């Protein structure tokens, strides 16, 4: 069998799937859960920060997803999205529910004890309290807004006191693309 025949036989096998082995560029669990958090963030109406969170149990099953938004019944169109306004009542700060809070409250399991929360930004002190009280034992964040800010320093202090592990996820790739036409392409 010469090289040309061998090559054509190999490509035939590839086309029929006979020699196909496992894909190698699949995303791992951590990328998957962080990407779910980022996908959820795309639902956010906040013009400045879109943050998502994804809670996962010890069996790698997702038990809660959330993103930052106004409370139920508080219209996205009527409540303010501005920050640092002369009157605090005109600022989003007093109203917006953060992604972590929503993910915990949206849980589809009895509780989130010993779960891991994946979140785009390191949690603020208010979310840290809710994370600790809910029993979540691990926080995986992608970015943080500076440790010098008291609300993030307070989160660290509380996590360390409560034994909640936290670490930064460093992505292996810059982006993960979703293509809705991929299921009908020739990759199947
Ligand atoms: Zn928060």
UniProtKB/TrEMBL annotation:
This is Probable deoxycytidylate deaminase. Belongs to the cytidine and deoxycytidylate deaminase family. One of its GO terms (biological process) is nucleotide biosynthetic process. Keywords: Hydrolase, Metal-binding, Nucleotide biosynthesis, Zinc. Coiled coil: none annotated. It comes from the Eukaryota. It comes from Leptosia nina. GO terms for cellular component: cytoplasm.
């Amino acid at each position: 069998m010469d090289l040309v025949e061998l090559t054509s036989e190999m490509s035939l096998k590839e086309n029929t799937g006979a020699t196909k082995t496992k894909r190698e560029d699949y995303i791992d669990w951590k990328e998957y859960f962080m990407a779910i958090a980022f996908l959820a963030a795309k639902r956010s109406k906040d013009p400045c920060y879109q943050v998502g969170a994804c809670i996962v149990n010890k069996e790698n099953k997702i038990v809660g997803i959330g993103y930052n938004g106004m409370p139920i019944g508080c219209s996205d169109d009527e409540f303010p999205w501005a920050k640092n306004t002369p009157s605090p009542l005109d600022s989003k700060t007093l109203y917006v529910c953060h992604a972590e809070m929503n993910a915990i409250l949206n849980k589809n399991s009895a509780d989130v004890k010993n779960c891991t929360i994946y979140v785009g930004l390191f949690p603020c002190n208010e979310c840290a309290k809710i994370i600790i009280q809910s029993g979540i034992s691990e926080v995986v964040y992608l970015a943080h807004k500076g440790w010098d800010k008291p609300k993030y320093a307070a989160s660290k202090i509380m996590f360390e006191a409560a034994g909640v592990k936290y670490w930064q996820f460093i992505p292996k790739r810059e982006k993960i693309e979703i293509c809705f036409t991929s299921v009908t392409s020739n990759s199947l």
